[in-house]
Amino acid sequence: MSHLRFGPNEINSSYLIDNADYVACHNPAFLKMYKHKMVENIREGGNFVVNTTAGTLEEIEKTLDARTKRILARKGAKLHVIDAEAIAREVGLGSRINMVMQTVFFGLSNVLPMDRAIALLKEQIEKTYRRKGKEVVDMNWRAVDATMAAIKTIPVPAEWADIEVEREVIDWARPDFVRNFMDRVNTQTANELPVSAMPYGGRYPHGTSQYEKRGISTRAPVWDPKACSQCNTCAFMCPHAVIRPYLVDEESYAASPYTDLPKAKGKKLKGHRFMIAPSPLDCTGCGLCAEACPDDALTMAPLADIREEAVARYDWASSLPLKDDLLDKFTVKGSQFQQPLLEYSGACPGCAESPLVTLVTQLYGKRMVIANASGYVLYIFLYLFTQLQRRVGRYRRCRTVHHG
Ligand code: SF4
Ligand code: SF4
User: Fold this and answer.
1) What's the topology of domain 219-392?
2) Which of 6, 45, 50, 300 has its CA 20 to 30 A from that of 239?
């Protein structure tokens, strides 16, 4: 969450904003994650913008929780929606929506006259992307030009002011630490916790990232079992340990709801079926797996279309016993049948460091202690990784794919 202040005079003090003129939700998943926290500091009559595919009142009301609706109505806030990703895709920017959302900000916030803001934005685009070529500059300019006409203002129904707020359902299956501490941190409500709620020594229990399931991507990979050559490059490349290969014994396969799993290739894997299953709610949509796949067996698809089926596949696959002793783990393929001990990393989409750290845990995790899992320690991992290159035979090829 970013807090940004503009003013005619120089701003010298730093504090969080509690009476915002303008609040924008750039990722629809945040509506589920932060719920009413997103708008509770909006001022009377302020603007609330959501980047979403929902373009009508009927559609947007399904995505807002009751408390959010009540706050918007009681504060007389204005609700705007924009499908920023559609614009970015149309002009060739893929999933990069920053220029669209910046234009929305200048269009609705009135911090500058619109003509002046657009001229300055375009000038800045030219300066920033000139070295990347005219095509990139043009794409960003087109994104700016297309944006204002695409903003839709949805009138907030007056009856939302008295809407009944449901009681929150507590998922008691989640561990205490996750419910009482991690969830508060992740929803940015941990400031309300007493110091005594902090884990002693700042230590976190292991394996908590599996409970986040943020669903931040609007796209996730879909696997084509017929095209797949079972190389495991996709899992090797994934920065977040989201897409993984699974070996399924014939008995489990016969009892499963699936009929499309190919026989696992290789003598050592005889008697098994092969499956690639990404965790769609942990995917960041970076698309690296699909880019790296040598057989075009992965396609990025809208999460909304595949969510249910993909979650069911992943839940089933991840409940299977680990088959980590059938192949040499010091190969690209074998390494990916090992349990990653840093999984679902919250790194930025496409991070190049996190797959290296994940790989080290797959190769040496049982004998590893990480004293400080951030910053310069990563350089040590990078050094270790260069030593590992000699042993992990196909790394050079994967690196070429990644940067190509
Ligand atoms: S799109 Fe990115 S995060 Fe998602 S499974 Fe592929 S590599 Fe992993
Ligand atoms: S990279 Fe492509 S071919 Fe290789 S295992 Fe993944 S989906 Fe299959």
Assistant:
1) Alpha-Beta Plaits (3.30.70)
2) 50
Whole-angstrom Cα distance, residue 161 to residue 403?
A: 51
Helix (H, G, I), strand (E, B) or coil at 70: helix
222, 236, 288: residue to mutate for ligand 1 pocket, most atoms within 8 A of CB: 288
pLDDT, tens digit (0-9, with 9 covering 90-100), for 202-211 = 788 888 999 9
Q: Which atom of ligand 1 is nearest to the CA of 243?
A: 5
Residue boundaries of the structural domains of the chain: 20-162, 219-392
State residue 253 phi and psi, 5-degree precision.
-65, -45
Count of CA atoms in the C-beta half-sphere (13 A) of 36:
15
Please give the C-alpha separations between residue 117 and each of 130, 147, 359, in angstroms, as whole numbers. Answer: 19, 13, 46
Measured CA to CA, the distance from residue 214 to residue 310 in angstroms comes to: 15
Report CA(194)–ligand 2 centroid distance (Å): 47
pLDDT band at 398 (very low <50, low <70, confident <90, very high): very low
Query: Over the stretch 331-388, which tens digit does the pLDDT of each residue have?
Result: 999 999 999 998 998 888 888 888 988 999 999 988 887 766 555 555 556 556 655 5
pLDDT in tens, 223-239: 999 999 999 999 999 99
Which CATH architecture is the domain 20-162 placed in? Answer: 3-Layer(aba) Sandwich (3.40)
336 Cβ closer than 6 Å to some ligand 2 atom: no
This prediction's pTM: 0.78
For ligand 2, the distance from its centroid to the CA atom of residue 80, given in whole angstroms, is 41
